[in-house]
Amino acid sequence: MDVAILVVLLALMALVVIILVRSVRIIPQARTGIVERLGKYQRTQGPGLTLLVPFIDRLVPLLDMREQVVSFPPQPVITEDNLVVSIDTVVYFQITDPKSATYEIQNYIHAVQELTTTTLRNVVGGMHLEAALTSRDRINGQLRGELDKVTGRWGIRVARVELKAIEPPLSIQDSMEKQMRAERDRRAAILTAEGTKQSAVLTAEGERQAAILQAEGEAQARILAANAEAQAIETVFSAVHDSEPGPELLSYQYLQTLPELAKGDSNTMWVIPGEFGDALKAFSGAFGGNTEATDGRSPEEREAERAAREERLRARRERKEQEAKERRGKPAISDAIADMASSARSTSVTDEHPHYEGTRDIEAEARRAQTGGGGRDAPSLDRESSTDTLKRIAESAPPEADPSIGSGRGIGEDSAQQALPQNPQRPAYDPYANQGNPQEQVDQQGQQPPQGWPRPQPGQGPHGQQGGRPPQRG
Q1: Where is the composition biased (Low complexity) (predicted)?
Q2: Which domains does the chain have, with CATH numbers?
């Protein structure tokens, strides 16, 4: 009796345990369960503790709500140009509706795989091999769009589709390898040619610059050598021309030059010219006293020729000394011109009398005379230009500032004559030699004649007199 009661109690306890186990379920995180009651959908149960009615409610297999990655095996696909390529794909998807994923599709993973294969064949079948190899992003976008349209009603969202590899046939791979090798060789050849071109251009440019510099250096050297030779020839010519050598000196120089002709290792024979005898006779006659026998001239003729030559030498030396004196006297001329310009500028009648409107121009000429023409390379002030400048200053001086008024001479004429070096070979200085009539100045330049200058009468000279001299002002 006791044993039977114990067995019943144990059976009741086992039944209670079984009921508790079937009625209490725990769903982990990121999982979702579907509860069916008597075979019909009851509810979608999320993570946590779930109580079920024993023998009435049933929990279907849990669904993973995380994003899943499924890699499919390579699929053969035919392109538009009838080439079979093998394509590996990877699909990223996630369950968004557990009820639809459970009741709308039997095996959603297999369904996604088959749908990816068919969609990939449709997309790649309308493309050439080269476009398929270079348009992976476009293929991925088209696949994702087509899969999303179909898997949306399954409660699945396709995140993205990636192509792992596109493998053409082996023959195509060999052809592509050859093409890529040829392209690399072509680029290498182009780069090599560009480098050679640049190197040749730089080398030619350097050679051109070097040739230009060398040519400029040679040209400069030739110019300097030619200038030096010309200067040497000019110096020798001037020395010979100034000395006026006679037949004796020429004969002596001729005899000195003849031995130079025999120098040299290549000279094996020396032909004496026919003029050697005449030169020797002239030389021996000059130093032996028999001049008449050498050149057929008498001693009186030779003496007259020597005297004429000495006279020419003396005249040339005097001319050079006179030129040197003129060059040394130019500073004194410039000072005299500056003094005359200062005297004319110090008067107050410049702005009152029309005759002195050109005083500023004369002052500018005086300043140019002081500086030698305004530049280092300007020509020097010669005697004629200095005289003309002094004459214009004298003509422009006002009557009040001229102490020589009434004497018929221009202002500063004495000082100008003292400042200028005297040359006995030139005519006497006449400041009024080229002076025009004041009335002509009125007609030609629009100026008024100075006060005290009478108008010319018929039959008179350009200065109002018969002698052509300007009248005395006073």
Answers
A1: 332-346, 435-450
A2: 2-63 (no CATH), 67-173 (3.30.479.30), 317-445 (no CATH)
